[in-house]
Amino acid sequence: MNASTPHPTGPARSEPRTADRILDVAEELFAERGFAGTAVRDIATRAGLNPASLYNHFENKQALYDAVVERGVRPIYAILDRILLDDGGPDRDAIAELMAHLSAAPGLARLIQHEALAGGEHALRLAGRWLEPMYARASAALAKSPALGQWEPHELPLLLMTYHHLIFGHFAMAGALGELLGVDLLSPDAVERQTRFVEKLSERLLGADADARRGDSA
Amino acid sequence: MNASTPHPTGPARSEPRTADRILDVAEELFAERGFAGTAVRDIATRAGLNPASLYNHFENKQALYDAVVERGVRPIYAILDRILLDDGGPDRDAIAELMAHLSAAPGLARLIQHEALAGGEHALRLAGRWLEPMYARASAALAKSPALGQWEPHELPLLLMTYHHLIFGHFAMAGALGELLGVDLLSPDAVERQTRFVEKLSERLLGADADARRGDSA
Amino acid sequence: MNASTPHPTGPARSEPRTADRILDVAEELFAERGFAGTAVRDIATRAGLNPASLYNHFENKQALYDAVVERGVRPIYAILDRILLDDGGPDRDAIAELMAHLSAAPGLARLIQHEALAGGEHALRLAGRWLEPMYARASAALAKSPALGQWEPHELPLLLMTYHHLIFGHFAMAGALGELLGVDLLSPDAVERQTRFVEKLSERLLGADADARRGDSA
Amino acid sequence: MNASTPHPTGPARSEPRTADRILDVAEELFAERGFAGTAVRDIATRAGLNPASLYNHFENKQALYDAVVERGVRPIYAILDRILLDDGGPDRDAIAELMAHLSAAPGLARLIQHEALAGGEHALRLAGRWLEPMYARASAALAKSPALGQWEPHELPLLLMTYHHLIFGHFAMAGALGELLGVDLLSPDAVERQTRFVEKLSERLLGADADARRGDSA
DNA sequence: GATGAATGAGGATTCATTCAT
DNA sequence: AATGAATGAATCCTCATTCAT
After folding, report:
1. Which of A50-54, B84-88, C102-106 has the least mean pLDDT?
2. What's the mean pLDDT in D144-149?
3. Exposure of A207 in the CB half-sphere (CA atoms within 13 A)
4. Cα(B151)–Cα(B163) distance, integer angstroms
5. Most confident option among A195-209, B78-92, C177-191, D120-134
């Protein structure tokens, strides 16, 4: 998917940009089949390479996987960082921007969910490595919300996770759930709708007048 | 050979019930490592068996996996069915009951998320096989909500998915996110909190007075 | 095939005659797939048994195989023995009788050819065990032929082998060659033809006037 | 991955030519033990390879087997083709040439007999694949024989099969029958004898004066 | 950078066989 | 005599990786 534009920016001319091609294919396959379910050989073949050649670009399968996640996760950090710089800026833009990014990198959300899903010490370490910076930033951004007072401290993690689930979950499961519901959840329209939905929900959770309603529910 | 009916009749005595032991172990490992990442040998060994013996109870790895999911998913259908029988009964109980079930079957939510995450035609078919009955029931249950009028038709799938994400996502990612947030998300306390959180959110989305607030947000 | 008449002689009544059923199935499968290619489980299943039960009747796979060959080969010995008792009796009947027997025991010829085909010490010993008595008798029968004088001593083995090839080969390869030639080589008609053909050839090799022609060809 | 063209161009140098070495060993073992009875591991080991390496040259066991048969069968086609080009040329040379070829390729005849022996749909298809071209050619060659008139049409297949049995059968069973008869049937002497024997028999079946004798025997 | 060939480790599964029931 | 369950050994094959070219 992403692979059709192997040299989006920069002066790189006719160079094959093999590494990027590999990353594109790997993102797609890792997202679809998970780490264990993806064969290095398949990645190489789809990238038009001999498996051995792949090792000229990445030290091993794990390093390739890391590179894929890293490449996909970095822009997310950037987005969240930008929110933090705005003073009291509107979350709304952040959500939309994040969803736009995930919409453009179809495998990324799946990859992250795969990571978060995996247990075991090894996986936990990996999850911490990429999710931690994300959560730190998201947590800081959330802390700036004016209407946060209505939530008790122990509810804050749950709020954070809610965003995680609704945003990453949407894209990660777009394939299966979309077919189930008869909708193409990755279409611009559907993404737009989900964006507005999350924003609406966000308002009801953190919005100004939400404050007034506090206490009824507990 | 055939293992789908390992103990056709007779009430389970005190026997070890090898097939069930295998299912337990398999649920745990599949949940943790996914289908591809789980070695049949590991399942067998942890169940105290020679790998070959496992094939006396299940035809192959895939059949074992299916049996695990099937076993875990059936009670969920039952819970949702019970809601449908209540006339206008409170969803609140349904959510609590569902979360209690998932809390007791530690691997199940992860398994389902693995399923939903996987792409490819094969996986989609499997996802449809188990998620479809769940969504059909959930959809019917949702349709009985009195305050549904405030949502447009195309938003209903998003509502459904929201529940999916918040409920299954919570348990599925409890390991990784819990460590990240410094909370044991599977502790009774945490489950209780998440239950109340989802209920609260449910109220704000579908609750009576939520109706009155409609229009402000759009 | 042979299994349709499980109690040909003797007072055995409604007894299942399991051992015979096993032998019938085994003959069929061993003939079709050879020793190594045949799974004990398949034999048992086709005989309506659990593989374990088979071991109540035969000590192991090899013993079963031996029993199959033994059962099939014994009548052949008998036929050849009968020829030896006749003084100067016509080979013609022997050939016809032998071919009739093989025609009725469809797997036997294949089995014997499998045996003869297999190399290795193990197989050679087996081949010797069953083929040797056959060849001893056939050799003795051949020695009684009046027109044998036209063949030199070292050609006698070749004559023997010729009969072997033409008789056993015919039935053993009836499947493949028959399909190739568009003929059902096992049909009564075809067997009749091959019988006459072998007899004709036999005449030209051993017949009375063949004697007169000796010398031209050498 | 693809191994059907392991050395597309270039004249074979002094390289060990792994693929050929594998083919040699495989021919030997398949001939001796049949397809099912031969372990890939044994082939690899005898060829001085790790079993996994074998898969760099042949896609799987069946493909290797096919390659072995193909390699051995091609020259036979060539021999038969050459006969067809000669106008009325002497079969005698054909028989001698064929027997010389089989004498040099020790496993080939056994392999072909294994093929012809195997039943089942799968095997029949394979048998057709290799035997059919052979029989087509042999049939055409036979049709050129001047003294064919003495045989009725339905006897022609039997004539063909006679050659098959006497030629391939001889080499295929040289091991077992040779030991039985106390002769080394593969020795140059023995092959020479069998060649002359088949030629003599061929004369008596198709020779000029055989024509004169027609009628007596029917 | 690319590749064909090689490999040790491990993958799922089948096999013949045993044994308690 | 029959069977379900168990097992060690062996099956074919795939995997990630290396290395000489």
Report:
1. B84-88
2. 80
3. 17
4. 15
5. C177-191
Q: What pLDDT band is residue D150 in, cutting at 50, 70 and 90? A: confident
Predicted TM-score (pTM) of this structure: 0.88
Inter-chain CB proximity D34 and C34 less than 8 Å = yes
Encode pLDDT of D151-171 as tens digits.
Answer: 888 888 999 999 999 999 999
Contact across the interface for A118 and B33, Cβ inside 8 Å: yes
- pLDDT tens digits, one per residue of A114-171: 988 887 777 777 788 889 999 998 888 888 887 788 888 888 999 999 999 999 999 9
Q: B125-156 b/e with 16+ CB inside 10 Å = b?
A: ebbeebbebbbebbbebbeebebbebbeeebe
**Residue keyed to tokens 């490819």:** B120
DSSP H helical segments within chain D, as ranges? Answer: 18-33, 40-46, 51-54, 61-85, 91-104, 108-117, 120-143, 156-172, 174-181, 188-206
Say which of A116, A194, A217 has its CB closest to residue B200: A217
The Å distance, CA of D55 to C1' of F14, is 10
Footprint of strand F on the protein (CB under 7 A): A 38-41, 51-52, 55, 60-62; B 6-7, 18-19, 49-53, 55-57; C 16, 18, 49-53, 55-57; D 38-42, 51-52, 55, 60-62
Tokens of A170: 């949407």
CB contact (8 A) between residue A132 and residue B166: no
Distance D44 CA to F19 C1' (A): 21
What is the CATH code for D70-210? Answer: 1.10.357
- Residue of B71, B113, B99, B124 whose CA lies nearest to B185: B99
Instruction: Tell me which CATH code domain C1-58 carries.
Output: 1.10.10.60
Give residue for tokens 């160079």.
Answer: A15
CA distance C204 to C201: 5
Q: What is the DSSP string of B113-141?
A: HHHHH--HHHHHHHHHHHHHHHHHHHHHH
Confidence label for D217 from pLDDT (cuts 50, 70 and 90): very low
Cα separation, C64 vs C47, whole angstroms: 13
CA distance C171 to D117: 10
Q: Which residues contact B6 (CB under 8 A, 6 or more apart)?
A: B18, B19, B57
Protein CA D24 to sugar C1' E7 (Å):
22
Domain boundaries, chain C: 1-58, 69-213
Q: pLDDT by residue (tens digit) across B149-191?
A: 888 888 899 999 999 999 999 999 998 899 888 899 999 999 9
